[in-house]
Structures are given as structure tokens and as C-alpha cells.
Amino acid sequence: MQTDNIRHHLPITVWKNPHLWYITAIMMACAIFYYLDTIIELMGWSRLQWWVLYTVHDLHRLLFFIPVVYAAYIFRVKGAIITALISMLIFLPRAILISPYPEPILRPIAFVIILGGVGILVSKLLDSITEHKRAEQALWESEEKYRQLIESIHEGIWVIDKDACTTFVNPRMAEMLGYTVEEMLGRHLFSFMDERGVQIATHLLERRKHGIKEQHEFEFLRKDGTRLYAILETSALTDDDGSYAGAIAGVQDITERKKLDQLKDDFISLVSHELRSPLTVITGAVNTALTEGARLSPEETRQLLKDAALEAEALSNLLGNLLELSRVQANRLVLYAEAISVKKVIQDTVEELRRQSPAHQFIVDMPRKLPPVYADSLRLERILYNLIQNAVKYSPQGGKIRVFAKPEKQHLVIGVSDQGIGISLADQAKLFAPFQRLEESRLDGVRGLGLGLLVCRRLVEAHGGQIWVESEPGCGSTFFFTLPIVSP
Ligand code: ADP
Fold first, then answer.
1. Which residue, 244, 260, 353, 471, could crosslink 477 as a Cys pair with Cβ 3.0–4.6 Å?
2. Is this structure's pTM higher than 0.90?
């Protein structure tokens, strides 16, 4: 099938090639010119008997270089040989029948050999030019592929010469350091690090000069002065004679990972501290009640146990929040949602916090009838607990804390407002992110992990609702969240 195709295809394309017809036309024109004197004689066109037509026919034969070179250009060696042979056929009649010179065939044969030789030479020359161009194109394509690869990889690539000056960086490397590629080229490696970095890099360069290839962490200075933490995979470059010519490094940005590690360390120390404080109170209170029991009044013993119970509750809430977050993190948060009335959940949670903080005034503000919502009641309790506990923590004793609920279109809006320290507009934007504790809270010595609002946000969003805050510094804050109303 395939060979059939080729067999039929080839001749058709050759015949369709217009160059074949141009070459034939030129050939015919050359032949007519070659025999024009004979034709004029035969026809008796005495007025056309110009001198030029009667000069040496060797010169006329020169015209045949045109079709031969043309054919060599288009059809290469084959074209040159065929046109040269056809020229021979054209020369033969004159040589045999007309030429008055001795050895008439020898000269055309010699001429045709030269014709064919020149044609073959031209076609070989053209072949080698084409081959050269093709090789150049292949080289360009492979260089282009290599360039695209270097430019698109996520890793930075940095090459320095033997004096540690930058000779190459890919765009990713420049981007990591906040420079443009042009800005980095030619600059000394040491200009991208602080003094300590220079000391370490000097030592590392020495190792590179001894041909040691290694992976290590390094701290660079970005253009804006911030730090880039990176893992480098470096190896030495050598000259043809094997002497040290510089180094090449694959650079991976691990700044985010470093930040996370730092965050993890901070988190562990914060959690340990947050766990230890209530435990100290609990053990202290229980031990005092046990050892000093006989000397204490029933009222004092009750107060000690109440303190212990409150701290235990705070501890349990903290652990509950951590558990919820770890479930969200592992995509294992399962809601047990059903149609429930929020009234009871709100009242129970408010009662619990009223018990814990009797100094605050709690107001519950709800219409008599509220549509049921689709929610997980334990999770709803946690959201409310976190918000009301914050209202208690961040507002003065005696302050009013209002918990309200009202239907709005397809949602029930539930809110907790206080008369506390309030939150600036800039701080409001970062509240619901992990470990956000505002400066004021830390200065006031209020305990917390900065995770309560994040847990609220994750739980509200898992219910298909939204959470936001409206606040004015010094005047108090109101946290709102929505839950979907069960359609009747
Ligand atoms: P925590 O209270 O454990 O620090 P949260 O995630 O619950 O963590 O709150 C994050 C931060 O938001 C708090 O540290 C506090 O600075 C601020 N905040 C939360 N609720 C209020 C509020 N009602 N009034 C003022 N600031 C608040």
C-alpha cells in the first residue's frame, strides 16, 4: 500500500514541478540558438544572416551551462547528468552532419563532460550548504530546547567563573533574589550575601576548587534585604586541561519551608506553655485542697476546686480546637449535620460561659421563632464557645456581651458583640489566619494560641456559611457568622 503510494506519487510530483518545464524551455531555446544559422540558411532568411550566429559554436554551447546549473540547483546530481546528456544529444547532429572541423565529435564530448562536471560540482556544493544549514537548524533547535528547559524549570541555576563572578543565571534564579538576569551577570558571588555568608562561601569555594561536589543549605541576601534560604547542589567546572574554571549550582528556594519549621517550633513552645499554665493551676488547686483540706473552710475548698474545674474546661477547649484543626488539615473533618434549632445551643453555651465569667453581663437577643438550620450542633457549640470566650477575654469585667440570631434570606445570621478593646481595620484582615494574636492581646497578658478564630472559620465554611468581623478600636467588636436555613 505504502510502496504503491510512493510509486504513483513520485512521477506525478516531478511532472508537476514547474522547474522541469522552465529547464525544458531554456534547453529548447539554447538548442534553437545553437542551430539558428542552419535554420536561417535552410529557410533562406538572408536578412537574418548576422555575424553573431556564425561565430564559434563552442561559445554558443556555453549557453547550455544555464539549464545544467539550473537543473543541478533544483534536482541536484541527477538533474545535472540528465541535462548534460540531453545537451550531448543536441550537439550530436551538428557534430556528425554539419561541422567542417576534424574530429567533430571529440569537442562536444569534452564539452559535455565539463558541463556535467560543473553541474555535479554545483549540486554537491549546494548539498553541503543545505547540510550545513540543516545542522545549524538542528543545533539551534536543540539550543532552544535547552534554553526553554533552563528558563522553565522551577530550580535556579547559577554559574560562576574561577573569580566567583556570575557568568550565567536563569530567570528563576534572578527572580528568587529579586534581581533581573542582566543585573546579576558579572556580579561577584559575595555581593549576594552578608559577612557570615562570605566566610562560609569562601570555605565552600575552596572545597569546589578541590573538585568536591556537595549539597548544602545557604542563606542569600535578596535585593530588598530580605533573606533567601536555599538548598544548593554545587559542583566544579573545569577547563580542557582539567584546571578549575568555576562552579555551577542548582538552587532550590526553601524559605517557606524554613518559615514553616520556625512556625512549628514556635507552635510547640506556645502549646507547651498554654498546656502547662492551666495544668499548674489544676495541680496546685487539687494538691492544696488535698493537703490543706483540714485547715480550709468549705468555701475556700469549693473555690479551689472551681478554679481547677475552670482551668480543666479551658484546657479541654484548647485541645478540642487543636483536634478540629488537625482534622481539617488532614481533610478528615466530618460534619454530623442535621436540622436543628440554634436557640438551645446558644442558650446552653451562654450559660456555660456565664458560669465561668460571672463578672460579664450576657444578653441573648433572638426572635421567639427561629427557622431550623442545617448544622452539626457540637461544632456550632464550639464556634459559639470560641467567639463568646474571646468576647470575655478581650473586654473588661462588667462589659456587656450580646449574643443574637436573626434570619436573613437563605441564612441565619448569628453574632457575638462585646464592648472590649476592638480591632483596627488592618488587623481585622489577618484575624482568621493561623497563629494570629494581636499585639494588644499579647501586651495585656491574655492567654491564647491564636487558633480559635481559625477553627471558627474552618467550621463555618464547612457548613457552607461565612464569618466576618465589624469592629472599632476602643468601642468593641461584633463577630458574625451564617448558617444555611433548612428550606421548608
Ligand atoms: P486567641 O484568642 O487564642 O489568641 P483567636 O484566634 O481566638 O486566638 O483570636 C485571635 C486574635 O484576635 C486574638 O489574639 C485577639 O488579638 C483578637 N481577637 C479575637 N477576638 C477578639 C475580640 N472579641 N476583641 C478584640 N480582639 C479579639
1. 471
2. no
